[in-house]
Structures are given as structure tokens and as C-alpha cells.
Amino acid sequence: METLILLLTDYTFQTVAMGSALLGIISGVLGSFAVLRRQSLLGDGVSHAALPGVVIAFLLTGSKDTEILLLGALLTGLSATLIIMSIVRYSRIKFDSALALIMSVFFGLGLVLLTYTQRMPNAHQAGLKRFIYGQASTLLQRDVVMMAVCGIVLLTVVVLFWKEFKLYSFNPEFAETIGFSGKILNIILSLLVVLAIIIGLQTVGVVLMSAMLIAPAVAARQWSNRLWLMVVLAAVFGAVSGVVGTLFSSAFVKLPTGPVIVVCITTITIFSLLFAPNRGILHRIYLRRKNRVQFKLNGGANL
Amino acid sequence: MAEETCALEIHDLTVAYGTKPVLWDIDLCIPKGKLVAIIGPNGAGKTTLIKSMVGLIKPVSGGVHFQIIEVKKGKFRNKIAYVPQSGSVDWDFPATVLDVVMMGRYGHLGWFKTPGRNEKNMALETLDKVGMREYANRQISQLSGGQQQRVFLARALIQDAEIYFMDEPFKGVDAQTEKSIVELLKNLKTEGKTVIVVHHDLQTVTSYFDWAILINLRIIANGSVEEVFNEQNLNLTYGNREHLKQEAN
Questions:
Q1: Same domain, B126 and B10
Q2: Would you write out chain B's pLDDT as a tens digit for each of its 249 residues?
Q3: Architecture of the A2-297 domain
Q4: H/E element holding A201?
Q5: DSSP-H helix ranges across B130-241
Q6: Residues of B numbered 43-62 whose beta carbons fall under 8 angstroms of chain A's beta carbons: which are they?
Q7: Domain extent for B131
Q8: Most A-contacting residue of B88, B106, B114, B141 (CB-CB within 10 A), to test interface
């Protein structure tokens, strides 16, 4: 108990937990829209494509500032998204193939550049490797402040465009016919998702980031049939996993924070898939059993 | 054909997917205040035609002109209402019946304004019209095919438009519901609205509609049901497709 209190009052712990919680909220909210638009995998593509951006940013500027490295990540992440969307639009290649192709090409390029860079004298201190699996412990207070500012901007945009996003996610063609440009909404929404991913890179890394986007949304969908409640729940699940994950990884030595956070959110998701009322698997099995008994009592066929 | 006011005119419209033409050199005048059926076999371009009319598909050439209303690009188009095929959306989306119907008011609200009590009351009234009021708070994934169709219809009605475009509104609907939907469409007509419907069931054309467009890549016939809905035109529409394709190529 004493260690727990000691831990909770620890400054580094507070910073990291705060950052992880923010990340959980942001990715939960934007992940909800990505999942509802059936674009969950795009997040995976974008995050993998962010790696070469980080390395190139370092190579060009020599800077170790997170902001600059993430700016590079943003640029390659966005260009990967654009390339994927253009391939789907202008060729016969389907979305999943285009995604797999671009994702692995960009990630491969990132790894090549990273290996090359590691041989350079000052590269080691730059800690570029932390972007692969994430290293939440490197979160500084100013990183958290940056995350908070970005988060507030992103959430404000979501609140502002709430009605439009809802309409567009449900029925883009109808939105178009009443004058809400699908092109514009798609760009805004995709941009927000990419930003959310970039924000999470330092904490959970490019490989696991898509889980942060998808898992809270999938879990939240199980518990609610209202869009707003789903989004709020996704944010809560994300935040809780962020804090609990940080707690676990701090309490036990040498447990990496990012992966532990992902394990936490996955646990919540599996629990939700199994036990949620109405949509949960167990509830459905129960319903089927109940129906079977009822039909039998009413003289129905032996199913 | 007597002079009639066109609700919308189409000139030289050609639409293609890739190199394959789907609609070829369409010229049309759809008169105002009619209940119009678009008829043709599968793959004839019915859905494509209706989507071109509401501006969802960019034609290779030609265009659609609205005569009785002004429809500007990029502006909110409150004067046209589009009912897509109900299969075109994911009904597992987290929304209630009321949510979906209220979306029909979004065009009137414009960007950023949120729907309020006013919109909610309108939605409830409209749900009354389609006999779905008691389903207002139902999650949309729990609706049957006919109920989904009526929700989409309510969403169009609440738009209070001048021209209604409906893509197979009777698909998956039982006889009872079909009757009540036809009743609603006829009411719209009496109000002076134009209703354009992609329709499949040839047997009901004469009893439901007063105008028919027969289409198979090109316009085969366009006129009042008495004038154009005859065996000769139907044969041309549903019969041999090959010679049409050759001409188009």
C-alpha cells in the first residue's frame, strides 16, 4: 500500500500516467469514427508509415526534439494515407491490398533508414528506436502539455462537426445530396485520425498504435447503441487503460508501458465482447438457449 | 405531348464506369407534379440515372438542370430529397430511428448548427405519418427491411423538398407497407411535388404511377404511363440488349 501511495505521488509517474490517459481519450474518440467508417486498418497503415518520417526528420535536422520528429511522422503518415486513397481511387487494387503494400513499404523504409542512422555518432541519444514500440517513460512534462493542447483542439473539432461526422459516417451519399461535401468531411476526419495516431507514437509506438485506436471503440460499441455514449465510453476505456497500464509497468520493474497499456485495453475489449448485455457473446448464447426452451414448450420442432 | 413544365431536364447525359458506358446520351424532361417510375432490367442504369440526377455521379458529358428550383453546387440543397437503397448503409450504426429521421433536417440547419426540440418534434410527426412513431427510440439495427425503408422515407419527407428521388423504396417491403408507402407518394403528388422512383414490379406500374421512363442504357420511352407503358416498349427495354450495346460502342 505504501509503495502504491509513493508511486502515485511520484512526479514521473504522474506525468506518464497523464500523458497515457490523454492518449487514451484522444484515440478512443477518433477511433470510434474510424471503426464506424470501417477504416480501422487505415490507422495501422498510417502509424507504420510514420516511422520513416521520424528518421528522415532526424537526418535532415539533427534534432532530437519530439515535436520535430513527430512533424516528420505526420508528413509521411499523411502522404501514405494519400497514396493509399489514390491507389484505391485510380486503380483496380482494393483497399486492403493497397494498405498492406504501402504500410510494409513505408515501414521497411523506416527500418532501413533507422538501421543506417544508428551507426551515426549522435544517433543513439536521439532515441529514435523508442518510436517503434513506444517508450512512455520518456514523456516529459512539455510532451504532455503538447498532447493536451492537441487533444483539446481535436476534441473541439469533433464537437463542432458532431452532426456532420455522424451523418457522414452513417450515410455519406445522403450527406452529399443535402450539401455536406463528402470530400471535405473525409479530409477533416482522416486528418484528425492521423493526428491522433501521431500523438500516440511516443507512448505506444508505431506497431501498437492501431490497437489504441480500434480497441476502445470496439469495446464501447458493445455497451451502447448511442453514438455519443459510445464515443464517451471509448474515451473512458482509453483513459483507464492508459492509467492502469502505467501503474502496472511502474509497479513491476522492466515492464514496457506502451505494450502494457495495449494489454489493458485489449482485456477490456475481450471482456466487453463476452459479457456486454445485448451484444455480448454470452448474452446471445443465453438468448438462443432460452428461445430453444420456449419453442419446445410451445410445441415447436426439436431444433 | 402537351407542353408541360419540366421539374428537371437532362441534356446529352453520358455516364461511364471506366470505359464501359452505363448511360448513353440521355435527354429527358421530367414533368412537374408527376409520380414517375424509372423502369428497366438489371444493369440498365436506373440507379446510375437517379444518382446522376442528385449529383452523386459525375457524368462524362451533359448534365442535369433543375427548372422549377434552383440547385446550386456546394449550397445546401433543401429542394431535393434522396432515398438511397436501404442496403447501402450499415444498419448496425449506433443510432436510433429518431436520430436517422432528424438527419433529414441537417440540410436546413447547415454547418455546425445542432438539431433541437423543433427538429425532434418534426421527426416525431413525420414518424407518425409513416406509422413508426412507437419505434422512435428503437435502435436501427432492430428494424425489419420494411421498417428501414419507412425510416428512410420519413427522413426524406422531413426534408420538405420539391423533388423526391427514391431508389427502390419497395424493396423488401410487405404488401401492407407497400400500400401505405404508395399512399404517401400519392399525397406528395397532390401537394404538387415531383416523385421519381426506381421501380421493379411491372405489374403495379399502371396503378401506382402516372409517368414512366423506360431505360436500358438509353432512354427507350419517356411519357405518361398510358402512352408509353406498352408491350412494344417493354420488349425494346427488356428484350435484346445486344444491339443497344453495339450502337453505343
A1: no
A2: 445 688 888 989 999 887 888 999 999 999 999 999 999 998 889 999 999 998 898 888 888 888 766 665 555 578 889 999 988 999 999 999 999 999 999 999 989 999 999 999 999 999 999 999 999 999 999 999 889 999 999 999 999 999 999 999 998 888 888 999 999 999 999 999 999 999 988 889 999 999 999 999 999 999 998 888 888 888 888 875 555 445 544
A3: Orthogonal Bundle (1.10)
A4: helix A182-223
A5: 145-157, 175-190, 205-208, 225-228, 231-238
A6: 51, 54-56
A7: 85-160
A8: B106
